[in-house]
Design brief:
The protein has about 270 residues and is mainly beta. The protein has one domain. Helix content is about 10%, strand content about 50%. The protein has 4 helices and 14 strands. It has a 14-stranded antiparallel sheet with strand order 8-7-6-5-4-3-2-1-14-13-12-11-10-9. β2 and β3 form a beta hairpin.
């Protein structure tokens, strides 16, 4: 359990498609799958009829080895000319006793392009406490990371190359839902968390029925995994989205070398 915090960050980057389905998402007319797959890793802007799920939040239980390990909450709000995504993760039960995790993330992105603008993180993971800010400088094609260790007061500054548009580990939860999801569709897109950019590949594998405390859903099963960068080959994630215009993310399973995490939707909050 000593490195659960670093493993949790690995899960975050792999789970790019988890919290991605605004309840107010309208149908769109994007290009067919063959064109999408051939265009290479990129962030596509939302279609003109896309509406962001402002004021709505998804609350999940997180299960690990049949135990409830904690909760995760993700919500979106308007923030002037930008969109704001907030994600909160808290461990509970014996997991919290062994290695407490209490993280708060906030991301801003351009609603016209879906390009991330900046990310801030306050992380408390076991004995580690850090404040981190990542800024995306597209003019210089760099991500700029500044981090402070809140216990030792040590600071870190790092710059890494990025393409002309990236999503981040928080905004990426919403990006996939702006795309049409039909069985057989494949996508690849760049994700950056302040380090080296990873390419994430997603594929719509099939349809399943999933029962949750919110209700029973007919869903689309989407797999996601990193195919380049430091996360390549380190795990795979399956997300079940409701098979309707809402694309509600009702369940997710992350299979990694050290175990499996299961996220179940418990409720949907409305401001």
């Amino acid at each position: 359990m000593h490195d659960l915090g670093s493993k949790a960050r690995v899960v975050c980057l792999l789970l790019t498609g988890l919290f991605t389905s605004p309840l107010s998402l309208a149908q769109n007319n994007a290009a067919p799958a063959t064109v999408k797959a051939a265009s290479g890793p990129q962030i596509m802007p939302p279609p003109p009829n896309y509406r962001f799920p402002n004021g709505q939040g998804y609350v999940y239980s997180v299960e690990w080895h049949m135990f409830t390990a904690g909760t995760a909450v993700v919500r979106m709000d308007a923030a002037g000319p930008e969109q704001k995504v907030t994600a909160i993760a808290n461990s509970s039960g014996f997991v919290n006793t062994l290695y407490g995790v209490h993280d708060h993330f906030e991301a801003r992105f351009n609603p016209r392009t879906f390009c991330s603008v900046w990310v801030t993180k306050h992380t408390e993971e076991g004995p580690h406490k850090r404040d981190t800010q990542v800024r995306f400088d597209y003019a210089a094609t760099k991500s700029v990371l500044d981090e402070k260790n809140l216990k030792s007061s040590e600071t870190k500054h790092a710059e890494n190359d990025i393409p002309s548009c990236v999503t981040d580990v928080v905004t990426g939860f919403y990006y996939l839902a702006s795309l049409p999801l039909q069985v057989g569709d494949s996508y690849s897109f760049p994700v950056n968390d302040g380090g080296k950019t990873a390419e994430v590949a997603a594929r719509v594998e099939g349809r399943d029925q999933v029962k949750t405390p919110v209700g029973t859903f007919q869903t689309l099963r989407v797999s996601s995994e990193a195919i380049s960068g430091t996360l390549k080959g380190r795990g795979k994630v399956w997300t079940w989205f409701s098979d309707d215009q809402n694309r509600t993310p009702v369940q997710m399973r992350a299979k990694l070398a050290w175990g499996t995490l299961l996220f179940r939707l418990q409720r949907i909050e409305h401001q």
